[in-house]
Each structure stands twice: as C-alpha cells, then as structure tokens.
Write a structure and sequence with these properties.
The structure holds two protein chains of two kinds.
Chain A: H1 3-18, E1 26-36, E2 49-55, E3 60-67, E4 73-83, E5 89-91, E6 159-162, E7 167-169, E8 174-175, E9 190-193, E10 202-210, E11 218-233, H2 240-250, E12 259-266, E13 270-275, E14 278-281
Antiparallel strand pairs in A: 1-11, 1-12, 2-3, 2-14, 3-7, 3-8, 4-5, 4-6, 4-10, 9-11, 10-11, 12-13
Chain B: H1 2-18, E1 22-28, E2 34-36, E3 42-45, E4 51-57, E5 64-68, E6 76-79, E7 82-84, H2 89-107, H3 112-130, H4 132-136, H5 139-142, E8 145-147, E9 150-152, H6 177-186, H7 206-210, E10 212-222, E11 225-241, E12 244-250, E13 262-268, E14 274-278, E15 281-288, E16 293-303, E17 306-316
Helix pairs in contact in B: 1-3, 2-3
Classes of the chains: A mainly beta, B alpha+beta.
Chain lengths: 282, 317
C-alpha cells in the first residue's frame, strides 16, 4: 500500500474521532393558552351562522363557516378580516398578503366546493360539540399537528356564495403573532394569567355575511385572548418532569383549556398541545 | 485463512451495528394507568404495584409520554428525565484502528509480516468502525444522554376543568362589534325568571363550608344614584367543586337577578375568612367572615345594556 494512502486512512478517522459530541440540554418547559372572550359551548338551532375556530401548534388560525339557514349566504371576504395580536388588520381577500403558515396548513386547494369533510361532523346543531382529542386535527387523523389536507377552502374571491346548510373554510390561514412554540423559547420563570383587557395576545375575527342576496350585510366578531403564559426552568440537569409538574400545578386546568400548548425548550425541542374547536354563532 | 476471519469479523460488526437498541425504564403511577406515546399508541399499563415497564427504541427520541386513567377523557403528559451518558464506541474504535494502522506500518521496518498484519487489523477496525456510524446517529448517542431507569407520571396532579365565561345568545340584530364586546366583558345578563336546581354535598371543603343562603339588605346603583333598595334580598351559594361555587341573587318576590348562576372561585384567607372572586370579573367579589356575614359587591351588572353596581350585606340563614 502506498504510504500516502495510508496517511489518508489514518488522518480521516483521527479527525472524525476528535469531533465533539452534542449534548441534550432542556432549559425550560413553557405553556400558553387561549380562550374566546365569550365562550360558547354549543350553537342553538336558530343560529343563522356558525363559525368554528381552530388553532394549530404553531399558532395558525383557520376559520370554518356554516350557513345554518335555508337561504344562500354570501360571505364578503373583502369585509372579513383578522385583527392580529399586534393590531394589524388583515383582510381575507387581499391578493398582496402572504399567508404566514407552514406547508401543512397552506390552503393548497381553492376549489368552488364547500365540502369540509371532517369539519362538518363537528357542527352539531343543538347538541354538544365534540371535543377533539388532543393533537388530532380537524381535517384528518394526523396527530402531528393541524393538517388541513382534507379541508376545502373557499376560493380567494371577493364574495363567496354558501348554499343552504353548507359550510366551508375561509380562504386563508393566519399566523397569530405571540402564539405558538416559536414564542415560547423563554428561559426565565414566569407564571402569568391574563384577562381580556390586559392580555399580551388579543386577536379578533370579523366575518361579514348576507342572507338577502347581498342587499345588506351583517357581521359577526369573535374575540380571543391568551389567558395564561407559564415558564418553568429546569433546575437540575435532566430533571425535566419537575419543571413540567410545576407548570401543571401552577395552572391545574392547563390540560383542558380550549387551546393550550406545552413547549419543551431543548436542544431536541418538543411540544404537546390541545386544540378544541371553538365556536361562535349569531 | 485470515481473510476469512476478517470477513467474519466485518460481518459481525455490520450485523451488530444494524440491530436496534432499546432502553428499558419503569414508569411509576397509579395501578391500571395506561401509558401512551405522543402518537397516542398505548405502550404499557401499570400493574398492581403501580409500575409500567417501557421498552423504548433508541432510534426515537421521546421528550414526553402520556398517562391516561381509564374512565377519564384526558391524557396527562409527563416528561422523561435523563442523565448525561457518553457513547464513545465509535470514537474509541477509530482511535484503536488508527493506532494499530500506524503502529503496524511502523513495525514493518522491524518485522514486515507482523507489521502488515497489525496494520491490516487496524484498517479492518477502521472499516468496522464505519458500521458504528448508524448506531452513533441515534439521538441518545448523538446527544449523549440516557433515560433514567425510574420515571414518574403526573397522574397525581389534580386536573380541573377551566371556568369558561359565556353569555346569552346574541339576538338577531345588526350590532356593532363594540357593543357586543362590551356586553361580553361584563358577562352579567339581564334578569329573567328561571328555575334552578340545587345540589348539596356534605364534604368538608371550602365550598361546603360556605354554601347556603345569605339573607340581608342591599341596593342597586347607577353611579352614585340608588336605583333600587332591597330590605329582604337573598344570595344563594351552591357548591360546584371544592373551590368553586355558583352564586345567584334572589329578590323577595322570588325573581333571580341572573339568568345563569355566576361562578366564583374561593380563596380561604389565613384568618379563616373567605374571599370569592367572580371568574372573568375580578372586581366582583364576595367576602364571608368567620361568623357567616357576607359582603357582596358586583360593580358590573348588565341590565338591558346599562351597567349597575349591586351591593348586598347579608348573613347566612
């Protein structure tokens, strides 16, 4: 064997062997939750419009609409908008707006159909809305997060007609600023609870609709706020469960909130969240 | 012949490094508790001793798992604790292989055949080390950790239902967003007569200690102006849970102030008194002293869109 080949065989492994290994460090366990300001458990039979709200683990909000009348409902997307937590107002019809969502929840299909698939089942009129199991998305069985692959969205047009008893999802999914695990990479202890007045994260959705052929438009506004934010640092290396227990004891209803996200701030980050369908009606 | 040994050695190294490794640990929890991974696949059930044995594949990193008590409809997460553990197999084998290769090459000057054999063994070790790379790419190897042999589920933590504030259904009118927002923030509704059912329990807790009817006098004010005075008004307190009660106000003619009972959270003070706060409206409070005297303050009673304050002094019947 040539000596120079041997040196290559020798030097490469030495370099490989000298590389330092990574370390698993978990700095903190963080939690945040969201509630509607005006919680509604179920919609009555005579509600004319029912909205279903779903927030993903990344803080992405999708709105589903059900026309509970026997008329054709027109949704005016130019007059429907989200007021984000930073005060920015974003219309549901605005071709210049970039949707801030990941590929899982991008509205990839913009067809005219309004069949929402699995969402339809949760708009139980008069009965208790099914609470979705933790982590299971609305449109399918993907437990990794909020996947809307089975959901058909409204086309991105100024106005959309929704047939009697029909339903569909608004054309865009919006990222709520201050929500999601990218906002929980905090490393200082905190236990804060908030009211609708003083919350660090407040956002609202306004949907404009008509049931008289577009002569007059009514609107329904739903307000949300984050009612808690907790961070517990890991005091002893590797003892992550102590920090998690501290979070759960600080807020004993954390696991049953309408939307709650646990985030493990680690070199191998992880999250777990509960997202129920929040409804509003008029 | 030695090449046969080299081949067998390489084959063994390849098979060894290709096999999955597992870490075993035990989760301590209540007997019968089910343990799930974050994909909601059941991985174990705690036995009569409250131990659930888990065999976890090292190729997957699990930050947390879930415990579920049969009969409940929620899962309780618990984090997996770990300690630092260095996995130096790859590094050590690379170093040994390098030393043997270099040493063998140097030894050829003394004994050519022995030197070649040693260097070949060294090269074979280096090649065999490559088979460790898949193992070394496992999360526990890459991040130098090992799960502790004993883990603890969090089933012992009391999980409570959130108290969610709601109001009456919106009437079919074109209301402005400001108006509806104001109404929702007050969270109190117009007076209507409804029947109510009461349930009582005799458990000794905060709610059981204070539940009952408190009768006294009161007034309804708008600003500083007294709108109505009450000489015989009743505050009913019903237990919902250990530290949550449902409160309503009943006039002498039997009509209720609020269509739905209001939920208050109880805080027992160090002096034996009770301080109750209306969920959603921190300024609405009830204070009960050790002699069952009640001071009821509600500054945001919404009657037909107007805001009033209701104040009552009462004593437990």
């Amino acid at each position: 064997m040539k000596i120079k080949h041997a040196f290559v065989w020798i030097l490469v492994p030495i370099f490989l062997a000298s590389c330092s290994s990574k370390e698993l460090i978990t700095k903190s366990v963080a939690y945040q939750s969201v509630r509607p300001v005006n919680y509604k458990a179920q919609a009555p039979d005579d509600a004319e419009i029912i909205l279903g709200y779903k927030i993903s683990n990344e803080g992405e909000l999708t709105v589903a609409v059900k026309n509970n009348t026997s008329e054709i409902m027109i949704i005016d997307q130019t007059k429907s908008f989200l007021v984000n937590s930073d005060g920015q107002s974003i219309s549901y019809y605005d071709p210049t707006v970039r949707v801030e969502s990941n590929t899982n929840s991008t509205s990839s299909s913009k067809g005219g159909s309004v069949n929402l698939g699995a969402i339809a089942g949760v708009f139980g009129i008069g009965g208790k809305l099914g609470m979705l199991a933790n982590g299971i998305n609305v449109g399918g069985s993907d437990t990794d997060g909020f996947s809307t692959t089975n959901t058909t969205y409204f086309a991105d047009q100024p106005q959309i007609s929704l047939g009697p008893k029909g339903e569909g999802a608004m054309s865009k999914t919006f990222k709520i600023k201050a929500l999601g695990y990218d906002n929980l990479q905090l490393t200082s202890d905190m236990v804060d609870s908030y009211t609708p007045d003083n919350s660090y994260c407040k956002f609202s959705v306004c949907i404009s609709y008509s049931i008289d052929g577009g002569k007059t438009f009514d609107k329904i506004v739903t307000d949300f706020y984050s009612n808690s934010r907790i961070v517990r640092t890991v005091k002893q290396y590797g003892k992550v469960n102590d920090a998690l227990r501290s979070v759960l004891m600080s807020k004993t209803d954390a696991l049953l909130e309408t939307w709650g996200l646990l985030y493990f701030n680690s070199t191998l980050p992880a999250y777990w969240y509960r997202s129920t369908l929040m409804i509003d009606y008029k | 012949m030695r090449y046969i040994y080299y081949f067998l050695f390489s084959l063994c190294m390849f098979m060894y490094s290709s096999c999955n490794t597992y870490t075993n640990f035990t989760v301590l929890t209540d007997p019968g508790t089910e343990i799930y991974n974050t994909d909601y696949q059941k991985v174990a059930i705690a036995d009569n001793m409250g131990k659930a044995n888990i065999k976890h594949a090292d190729k997957n990193h699990a930050t947390l798992m879930l415990s579920h008590k049969p009969g409940t409809d929620y899962y309780v997460p618990f984090a997996l604790d770990y300690k630092e553990k260095k996995f130096n197999g790859l590094r050590n084998s690379l170093l040994i292989g390098s030393i043997l290769t270099v040493g063998g090459l140097c030894a050829t000057g003394i004994n050519k055949e022995a030197g070649i054999m040693v260097s070949e063994m060294g090269l074979l070790t280096l090649v065999g080390s490559e088979f460790f790379i898949p193992r070394s790419s496992q999360p526990n190897h890459e991040y130098s950790y090992k799960y502790l042999p004993i883990q603890h589920a969090n089933q012992d933590i009391a999980i409570t239902q959130p108290v969610l504030v709601s109001s009456n259904a919106e009437k079919k009118t074109t209301t402005s967003s400001t108006a509806s927002k104001t109404k929702s923030q007050t969270s109190s509704v117009s007076r209507k007569k409804i029947n109510s059912t009461a349930s009582t329990k005799t458990l000794k807790d905060n709610a059981s200690s204070i539940e009952g009817s408190y009768v006294g006098t009161g007034s309804l004010k708008k600003g500083n102006t007294v709108v109505e005075s009450y000489s015989n008004i009743k505050v009913t307190v019903k237990k919902k849970s250990k530290d949550v009660v449902l409160v309503n106000v009943v006039e002498s003619n039997g009509s209720k102030y609020f269509e739905t009972d209001c939920e208050y959270t109880i805080n027992k003070l160090s002096n034996g008194k009770y301080s109750l706060t209306l969920n959603g409206i921190n300024s609405a409070t009830i204070n009960i002293d050790t002699k069952n005297n009640m001071i009821y303050v509600h500054p945001r009673v919404n009657i037909d869109g107007e805001i009033y304050s209701l104040n009552i002094s009462a004593k437990k019947k």
